[in-house]
Design a protein that fits this description.
Blueprint: E1 4-5, E2 8-9, E3 11-17, E4 20-25, E5 30-35, E6 40-43, H1 52-59, E7 64-67, H2 73-76, E8 84-87, H3 89-92, H4 101-108, E9 116-119, E10 125-127, E11 132-137, E12 146-150, E13 155-159, E14 167-168, H5 178-194, E15 201-204, H6 213-229, E16 260-265, E17 268-273
Parallel strand pairs: 6-7, 8-9, 13-15, 14-17
Antiparallel strand pairs: 1-2, 3-4, 4-5, 5-6, 10-11, 11-12, 12-13, 16-17
Helix pairs in contact: 5-6
């Protein structure tokens, strides 16, 4: 079966709210399926391992709109299961760039490796039928990051810009200083905070969900402020939830990044380039 490996199923799925599902590819990513009366929307598609379309179609027979929080391949690889995907203009620049030869193999064996990309813009409303989802641009971890606010279930889906483990500040398309990334990130956290009356939980793409908004958003703003003021406190090493302590050993996926450090403030943590 396409969706099984030697350890069992590639994908798990569970319902998190009415007509709303979380899908995971062996816990590497959390992807979210929102079902309206006319259409469904899938937020992110994983790394192309297995066939996520089969999982989605086991849940709903509604036509599916595929959207991406950003263009990193662990969020866009499974797009090639569908003929179309929607994302930011910045994300479209690298959404079809696999991380490794095996990712390319998985991607190209699907039905639509040449899928068409459509642009999503800040403030846009996606209509699913009796269900509206607002698009919010929050690029810092990645220039093209988008959040999705689902008014029906009062949920904010944040991609990789806020999460329980650590936000990576060194995987951007354009290399800028940690202080500059922090300024962008703070602006985006304040943007999420401005919508606080419209959601109850944050649903990130990695390392556990849901998150309590006030704790995490406020802690990330405080950490951003630490960087802006040059007073961030570094942890003894980079080790964290889902992140290794030795990023420079041969074969590490982060070997390209050079020397990395981890800084923390309360529940917030980031990994950045020295």
């Amino acid at each position: 079966m396409q969706n099984q490996n030697e350890d069992g199923n590639h994908f798990g799925k569970w319902q998190i709210a009415k007509d709303t599902w979380c899908i995971t590819n062996h816990w590497a990513n959390f992807m979210y399926l929102l079902i309206g009366s006319q259409k469904a929307m899938l937020i992110d598609t994983g790394s192309a391992d297995g066939n996520i379309r089969e999982i989605v179609e086991s849940i709903t027979d509604k036509p599916v709109i595929v959207v991406n929080t950003h263009g990193h391949f662990d969020h866009t690889g499974g797009n090639s299961c569908w003929p179309d995907a929607w994302m930011s203009r910045e994300a479209a620049m690298y959404a079809k760039e696999p991380f490794s030869p095996i990712h390319r193999e998985w991607f190209e064996e699907k039905d639509y490796p040449d899928y068409e990309i459509h642009e999503l813009s800040d403030g846009e409303i996606i209509e699913l039928g009796d269900r509206q989802v607002k698009v919010l641009a929050i690029g810092a971890h990645s220039e093209g990051s988008l959040a999705f606010l689902d008014y029906n279930t009062r949920a904010m889906f944040t991609g990789d810009e806020i999460e329980s483990g650590q936000v990576l500040w060194f995987v951007r398309d354009r290399n800028i200083s940690a202080k500059e990334v922090a300024a962008l990130h703070k602006k985006n956290m304040e943007k999420l905070k401005a919508y606080r009356d419209s959601y109850d939980y944050l649903w990130p793409s990695h390392n556990g969900a849901p998150l309590v908004p006030d704790t995490y958003i406020n802690d990330f703003i405080a950490l951003d402020d630490d960087f802006i003021a040059g007073r961030q406190v570094d942890a003894p090493n980079t080790g964290g939830f889902g992140f290794p302590t030795d990023t420079q050993k041969p074969g590490s996926p982060f070997e390209f990044a050079g020397k990395l450090k981890r800084a923390e403030h309360g529940c917030a943590a980031v990994i950045y380039t020295v």
